[in-house]
Amino acid sequence: MAKKPLFFFLILCGSMVIVVLLMFSRFGRSKEETGSCNGEARVLYKHQNVTRSEIHALVSLFSDSDQVTSFECRKESSPGMWASYGITCALNMRLEKHETTESFHGRRVAAQCFIPDGELPLDLNPSDLSHSISSAAHMCDNLEQSLEQPKEHKNVEEGLDWDLLSYLRNTWWCLILGILVCHRIFVFHSKTPRERQEKVYLQEPLAQKKQQQCSQTNSRGAGKWRKNILLLGVIAGVSLSVWWFWDTNEEIILKRRETLENMCDERARVLQDQFNVSLNHVHALSILVSTFHHGKTPSAIDQKTFGEYTERTNFERPLTSGVAYALKVPHLKREQFEKEHGWTIKKMETEDQTLVQDCVPENFDPAPIQDEYAPVIFAQETVSHIVSVDMMSGEEDRENILRARASGKGVLTSPFKLLKSNHLGVVLTFAVYDANLPLDATEEQRIEATIGYLGASYDMPSLVEKLLHQLASKQTIAVDVYDTTNASGLIKMYGSDIGDISEQHISSLDFGDPSRKHEMHCRFKHKLPIPWTAIIPSGLVLVITFLVGYIFNEALTRIATVEEDCQKMRELKARAEAADVAKSQFLATVSHEIRTPMNGVLGMLKLLMDTDLDVKQMDYAQTAHGSGKDLISLINEVLDQAKIESGRLELENVPFDMRFVLDNVSSLLSGKANEKGIELAVYVSRQVPDIVVGDSCRFRQIITNLVGNSIKFTQDKGHIFISVHLADEVKEPLNIEDAVLKQRLALGCSEPGETVSGFPAVNALRSWSHFKTFYSNESHNSDKIKLLVTVEDTGVGIPVDAQGRIFTPFMQADSSTSRTYGGTGIGLSISKRLVELMQGEMGFVSEPGIGSTFSFTGVFGKAEANSSIAKLERFDLAIQEFKGLRALVIDNRNIRAEVTSYHLRRLGISVDIASSLRMACTSVSKLGNLAMVLIENDVWNKKDFAVLDELLTGSKETSARVPKFLLLATSATLVESSEMKSSGLIDEVVIKPLRMSVLICCLQETLVNGKKRQPRKRRNLGRLIREKQILVVDDNLVNRRVAEGALKKYGAIVTCVESGKAALAMLKPPHNFDACFMDLQMPEMDGFEATRRIRDLERRINKKIASGEVSAEMFSKFNSWHVPILAMTADVIQATNEECMKCGMDGYVSKPFEEEVLYTAVARFFESC
Amino acid sequence: MEKRQFRDYTISLYHQGFLDDQFTELKKLQDECSPDFVAEVVSLFFEDCEKLISNMARALDQTGNVDYKLVGSSVHQLKGSSSSVGAKRVKGLCVTLKECCDSQNYEGCVRCLQQVDIEYKSLKGKLQDLFNLEQQIVQAGGRIPQVDI
């Protein structure tokens, strides 16, 4: 989950980068533009009929307004605004330029639109992104279309468009790539921990711990990694914002400097041009003077004319404060000159400037004697006070004059304080030559040809002031003008001290005098304003970065804590599980350890009870024994529980007869049930195979437990009904064939007629309705069957609120239960677990006051067809005996009748059912050849019975046998039933619960009457072993004699030997013995050893026969020799029995011989013969 | 008269623990084919007893060097035959003697052996009486009654 934010963070970074790149391109363009500004000026200059200064003024005006309007444009971004921008045709090109700029702004707007998209972190995906980009591009296109109205620059614009589009595309691809890479990383990182977790769950607790530690360090590592990434991201964000700020700021400063530069240059140029214009006019004036004053005689110019002319043409020389003309007068002509003009040549006072200011020319001293003079003869009105002043006497002027006449060009003085105005100024001097001066005249010729000097004084401050007034943004910029002819000492001609000196631009001025150098220094009046445009976005980026970083940090911390907690939980879980296992193991061990001494205690108590005890002692001993037995059964249960919990209990897989097990259970519990007067019934569906493979002991344990519970909680009435069905039978309730099941499922508890005892019971259907595996048709294994067992009782039921915890160990329905009924409440829990081990489920349905039905399923294997179970063999004969007989069951309750007929069917007896004696009377005539009639005690009634008896005995003549009457009774009615028996009404009373052995016993006694029984049996045994050769091996003479006598009795031909060796000799094939009875304990060679040897011998012979070495005929009738050897032993311990089997014996009979045992043992071998 | 005496005597033998069910079983084996089966077996038993007891007595006489193994096997034999015949008391004594012998308890062995000797002799006498009674009944032309215990 940590990956998602990281993902978006990366996207955010990507979008930021794009924005920055876009801005970059914008900056590059605007730079280009400003650079092209000068070029345009030149173009304009060429094509338009305007002076340079005007052009410059215009250009500056526009570059200024460009800044303003571009700003506006950024706000409004409306192309139409530009269409209505009315300016003369000279502005067209500028306008187009503006539009291109505007298109950038438009694009930037688009880009800005894109930014918020990028900043929405939650639902961003590449398609969205591409959409926003494309929409941005679309916006750009729209803008372009509106801007393309001026057709001339279409191509250029298209080119620009293409650049931008390809650029966008590239960034888009980069972004996609980035997202893909990120995605891969996330997938990788989100996958591995899950896998790791899965692994963790699969491990054993101990290994799990290790793994956990491993994964813990891993996750910690991942956490660190994430933190590092975050830190990197934050650093990247901060550096981005710093870089952004720095970049924008730099940009601003650069732009400012450029502006300053441009403005400075422009001002310098304007000044220079104005100056030059004045210069030219002064030059023209000098020519005028030379033409009209010297060229004409008499002179066309006098002071008045000059003054008037100059005054009127003053507009041509905007910078001059005044113009004067001085004549070159050599010293020789001074007197003549002074006479002509009527004034003396005066000296210019320079010693005391203040004085100069005020004094009138008349007060000047006459000029000292010099080689030549340059007295002013004409002067403009503004400077009329200098008429008659000798220009040569002023140091600056003199130098100026000398240079001017030598160079023939306008010459400037260094700035000095002008007379009168007290302003700093410069004087421009032109030499006026004789008219016929050649163009390539030398310096001497020039000096020679000089006839006068025209001077113009420039009042610099007012001049510059006037000039700057004409230019825009005069408030923002401060201008200084310096004379830099003397490199060491700059002379400030104009300027103020205000403004930021740190950044200034210097433009050189050319006033047409190569020997003089001037410079213009420009600077902004105000300091650089705080660069908000740089601060705000970068600040925002910084804030966003920190916010995002904070969010991620929080998220990561949370992830880390959650992971840590999870880790802790897992550890705790593992520990708890380990503790649980340890507990179970401890219990298992301890229970086992307790059981051993308890057995000793119980054994000893039993022995004690066998001794001579008086009544009191006996009572004590019995109590102790009973308690001990309870304790040991509890311990066994705990042991089971512990074993199951610790996973040590494994189920056996042996074939067993389910019906036999159920018989066992019912016979075991019949005592208790009879005591309480509860009817116990067992029913197994016909579809359940005879032999199933599973753990019979555990199966029996479950059943015993459930039935035991039922008996415990059922009070003196009703029934307990155990039924076994195939789970498949119940799956489809509509086509149930089994009669019992049909009746049970069809009826609810509301109809009491069809339960076994007639008392109402709950409907069993609900008890298995919750089974998960029940209805699922999961892999139908052909060698597996699923059985459904239900145990129904009519007990007190389980309170509804206690039903949820009924399977919890040591938890009974309520605390009073154990006081009333006893028990520990562990049995059900164990049963449930056992059922789960059998891949089944256990459920129940219960209604207080009516009863409970417990059901469970279990998966058992199908036994191979021919496998049989030894235990049942003694019934086999009986079953053969009964096979094919017919019986009539008279019972008013269908289910009970079905149960009875189930038991009879097991014996091979075919059954008909009649619901009452009267019914039986009507049907009995149809049923010929009845062997027996079983009458349920409930339907007994003397009158009807008499009729039936009559009917049946009446048919005596026709059928050979008279049917026997058997009464089915519970122990409660035993006494009266016995009376009936003794009164001769019925032949036998069968006590329920029915089970095979009891039934066989009763039937045998009844069908084969008392007298006949003995001989029949004897005859049976005799038939079996008559004429058989039997060898008896016993060292004890008496035993031998008794055995011999016993066997001879049944017609066997008995040979006796008294040792194992002798037996060996006798049984060496070929021999004629059919069986051998062998004592186990004999001197020299005991029975085991003898048997082993005999078997060895037989095996060797068999091998020989098989290989054809010895012909089979020689060894008479057998193809393979195997004489049955039966052990005769006094102790019938299992161990001995096993030993017997191990050494090759076929069975054993306990000594001394008993007829029954002998019969059973021998029967097995001679049955087949 | 004799029949009643016979029956009472038999019952007393059972009740006093001289005989058990096995003797009844033995009697069942006696029929027309082998009329003296019980007598035959019993006499065999007594011969056996005599032999074994003397064996054991001899073995136990050799003070300090008693062959308990020999005694053990003898007493096992005796136990087997006595249980076959249904001589309950002898059998019980044999069990005790076997235990003494297994624990090599000389004193116990000697005492038990003496008891066995006494017991078997008294049983022999009783059975002799019983057979005599039978004889008398048979000679008188009566049938030996079935005695249900």
TrEMBL record, chain A:
> What's one GO MF term for it?
protein histidine kinase binding
Q: Which GO terms describe its cellular component?
A: endoplasmic reticulum membrane
Top class in the EC scheme:
transferase
**Membrane-topology descriptor:** Multi-pass membrane protein
- The answer on whether this UniProt entry bears the keyword Phosphoprotein reads yes
Which positions does the record annotate as the modified residue 4-aspartylphosphate?
Answer: 1079
Every copy of the Response regulatory domain together lies at 886-1007, 1029-1166
As recorded in UniProt, coiled-coil segments are: none
Instruction: Spell out the PROSITE patterns in the cross-references.
Output: CHASE, HIS_KIN, RESPONSE_REGULATORY
UniProt cross-references to Gene3D superfamilies, sorted A to Z = 1.10.287.130, 3.40.50.2300, 6.10.250.1190, CHASE domain, Histidine kinase-like ATPase, C-terminal domain
One Pfam family, short name: Receiver_CRE1
GO annotations under biological process?
Answer: cellular response to abscisic acid stimulus; cellular response to cold; negative regulation of iron ion transport; phloem or xylem histogenesis; regulation of chlorophyll catabolic process; regulation of flower development; regulation of meristem development; regulation of seed germination
Tell me yes or no: is Hydrolase among this UniProt entry's keywords: no
Q: What is its EC number?
A: 2.7.13.3
The entry's keywords: Developmental protein, Endoplasmic reticulum, Kinase, Membrane, Phosphoprotein, Transferase, Transmembrane, Transmembrane helix
Domain spans labelled Histidine kinase: 589-857
Q: What InterPro entries is this protein classified in?
A: 2C_system_His_kinase, CHASE_dom, CHASE_sf, CheY-like_superfamily, HATPase_C_sf, HATPase_dom, His_kinase_dom, HisK_dim/P_dom
Matching SMART domains:
CHASE (SM01079), HATPase_c (SM00387), HisKA (SM00388), REC (SM00448)
Reaction(s) catalyzed by this protein? ATP + protein L-histidine = ADP + protein N-phospho-L-histidine
User: What name goes with this protein?
Assistant: histidine kinase
What is the source species?
Cardamine amara subsp. amara
Automatic annotation (TrEMBL), chain B:
Q: Which PANTHER family match?
A: HISTIDINE-CONTAINING PHOSPHOTRANSFER PROTEIN 3, PHOSPHORELAY INTERMEDIATE PROTEIN YPD1
Q: What are the record keywords, sorted?
A: Acetylation, Cytokinin signaling pathway, Cytoplasm, Nucleus, Phosphoprotein, Two-component regulatory system
Please give one Gene Ontology molecular function term for this protein. histidine phosphotransfer kinase activity
Q: Which Gene3D superfamilies match?
A: HPT domain
Name its GO BP terms in alphabetical order: cytokinin-activated signaling pathway; phosphorelay signal transduction system
Q: Which domain of life is it from?
A: Eukaryota
Q: Name one GO cellular component term.
A: cytosol
Kindly give the PROSITE patterns that the UniProt entry links to this protein.
Answer: HPT
Return the domain comment text from this UniProt entry: Histidine-containing phosphotransfer domain (HPt) contains an active histidine that mediates the phosphotransfer.
Q: Which residues carry this modification: Phosphohistidine?
A: 76
Function as written in the Swiss-Prot or TrEMBL entry: Functions as a two-component phosphorelay mediators between cytokinin sensor histidine kinases and response regulators (B-type ARRs). Plays an important role in propagating cytokinin signal transduction.
Which Pfam families does the record cross-reference, listed alphabetically?
Answer: Hpt
Q: What is this protein called?
A: Histidine-containing phosphotransfer protein
Localisation per UniProt entry: Cytoplasm, Cytosol; Nucleus
Q: Domain (HPt): give its ranges.
A: 34-141
